[in-house]
């Protein structure tokens, strides 16, 4: 299971990359808008933080030819050494754009996936990753974890190279249950990443250890 941060907040990401074993960052237009800064100001710092890890940037164009142009422009802006993935929604134009990008050597993440069949079509169109939205499905009683499970099973059954990058989490329990499906990766917001790596009993134990051993740890450092 790989963990990615679903954020463009530079302060959050700097903290997370200092201790959390992240494999990359994902963004979308709403996340970018939340930061109130244009891509030209955010992407250089995101590139620096990510290094050789993955950077998934969602396209905003709605037509396939414009998606290709936009993705090529982002790749040029970021440079050839960045592990860049163009996020493309699973619309009619998106499906049309996926093989176009792949022919130009670009990597693709199919996003806004809500059904098992959308994921299969995206995989056949050449997507490297598909990103099903877990919490948004749960909010309409559509069982997001089950959808992820079905996608993972089909990819394994059909020996498809596309990987599942589950997204849209509101709780630690959702992340926990997705890990049990065999999902390859998850992208998670800062708040949930902070909660899933911690536990109050861990903090209590550390306090107890510090008090109990304070008189006896006499090697200076």
Could you characterize what this model shows?
This protein is globular. The protein has eleven helices and eight strands. It is of the alpha/beta class. Strands 1-2-3-4-5-6-7-8 form an eight-stranded parallel barrel, surrounded by seven helices. Strand 5, helix 6 and strand 6 (129-132) form a beta-alpha-beta unit. The protein has helices at 10-19, 29-35, 39-50, 64-78, 92-103, 116-124, 134-138, 144-157, 172-179, 190-196, 200-213; strands at residues 2-6, 24-26, 54-58, 83-89, 107-113, 129-132, 163-166, 185-188. Helix 1 packs parallel to helix 3 and helix 4 (64-78) crosses helix 5. The chain has one domain: Aldolase class I (TIM Barrel, Alpha-Beta Barrel), CATH 3.20.20.70.
List keywords for this structure.
221 residues; alpha/beta; TIM Barrel; 8-stranded parallel barrel; 11 helices; globular
Q: What is the element layout, followed by pairings?
A:
Elements: E1 2-6, H1 10-19, E2 24-26, H2 29-35, H3 39-50, E3 54-58, H4 64-78, E4 83-89, H5 92-103, E5 107-113, H6 116-124, E6 129-132, H7 134-138, H8 144-157, E7 163-166, H9 172-179, E8 185-188, H10 190-196, H11 200-213
Parallel strand pairs: 1-2, 1-8, 2-3, 3-4, 4-5, 5-6, 6-7, 7-8
Helix pairs in contact: 1-3, 4-5, 6-8
CA distance, first residue to last residue? 36 Å
How much strand?
15-25%
Order of H and E elements: EHEHHEHEHEHEHHEHEHH
Question: What general form does the structure show?
Answer: globular
